[in-house]
Design brief:
Layout: H1 6-9, E1 13-15, E2 22-29, E3 34-35, E4 38-39, H2 41-59, E5 67-75, E6 82-92, E7 98-106, E8 109-119, E9 146-147, E10 164-168, E11 184-191, H3 193-196, H4 199-209, E12 228-235, E13 244-249, E14 257-265, E15 271-280
Antiparallel strand pairs: 1-2, 2-6, 3-4, 5-8, 5-12, 6-7, 7-8, 9-10, 10-11, 11-13, 12-15, 13-14, 14-15
Helix pairs in contact: 2-4
Length: 285
């Protein structure tokens, strides 16, 4: 396992800024939180959310209990692991909803631009949920699940598995056996113990997990880099400690683009995060 825990991604150092509505922070994203050589998209959304929340609490401490319930992210570039900066702008401050924009920057270039909606998370049991979603999805990895450890084919590419417990359901990831199937994949992911004790860190981890699946068109034989064009992430509640179950699927896989949705479910069976993204089919596939 890595010595770069997830909560370090959320650490912010305030930088000089101008005006009462705009703040600046520096942070660092370790190479653990990468896919191949580039920083993992969900990690950048989660770290940007931490910058937005830090600035909102600074501007108005009365809004400290608000959380980033929605994030709309545009990916302009793929930063390298290491030092990054966050330019944070408060767009609206309200009693129920506040809006904060964040630009994640590296070497003077904006790499990710995210518009955050802050509000109050659900903290009671849902009045209804579709239990069929996890009817056949065990709460913890099965014996035939493939762990993303350093020696596994997936772990050598998805380094996020070094900073978390991460495993993929081999019955759905047909591409692992050289087979084709439905563009739908299931995974399990859990924070390391030091990242699981804090509720805010668990919530941010759930946001990150809403982008953890390999591109599901791999089940159709489309391999290679699938750059995300735009992603919207929802945070519904703070997850209970334990394993998170992730279901990723596509509705339509086109010739140029595909959509991919993630559903993140905690150990109690509650939906804690969701995402929908538009991404490009790998070139030459």
């Amino acid at each position: 396992m890595s010595d770069a825990p997830f909560h370090r991604v959320l650490a912010m150092t305030e930088l000089p800024h101008s005006g009462e509505e705009t703040g600046r922070y520096s942070g660092e994203i370790d190479a653990t939180w990468t896919i191949g050589p580039k920083v993992h998209g969900g990690t950048m959304v989660a770290s940007s959310a931490a910058a937005a929340a830090t600035w909102l609490r600074t501007v108005d401490p009365s809004q400290a209990e608000m959380a980033p319930i929605a994030a709309s992210s545009d990916f302009l570039g793929a930063p390298e692991p290491g030092k990054v900066e966050y330019a944070v702008t408060l767009r609206k401050k309200g009693r129920q909803i506040s809006l904060v924009d964040v630009e994640l920057q590296q070497n003077g270039r904006t790499c990710v631009r995210t518009a955050f909606t802050f509000g109050y998370l659900d903290d009671e049991a849902p009045s209804w949920t579709d239990e069929s979603l996890i009817a056949d999805f065990p709460a913890e990895p099965t014996a035939d699940a493939l762990s993303y450890d350093d020696d596994s084919p997936m772990g050598k590419i998805v380094h996020v598995g070094q900073g978390s417990h991460l495993a993929i359901d081999t019955t759905t990831a047909r591409f692992l056996k050289g087979e084709t199937g439905t563009p739908r994949v299931r995974l399990w992911i859990r924070p390391l113990p030091g990242d699981e004790v804090n509720a805010r860190a668990r919530a941010a981890f759930a946001m990150m997990a809403a982008d953890i699946s390999p591109p599901v068109p791999m089940n159709l034989g489309h391999f290679g880099w699938s750059p995300t064009v735009q992603m919207t992430t929802f945070l519904r509640r703070v997850p209970a400690p334990g394993w998170l179950r992730v279901i990723a699927h596509a509705n339509t896989v086109g010739q140029r683009m595909f959509d991919e949705e993630h559903l993140v479910i905690d150990s109690t069976g509650a939906v804690v995060a969701q995402s929908r993204q538009l991404a490009l089919i790998p070139a030459g596939s």
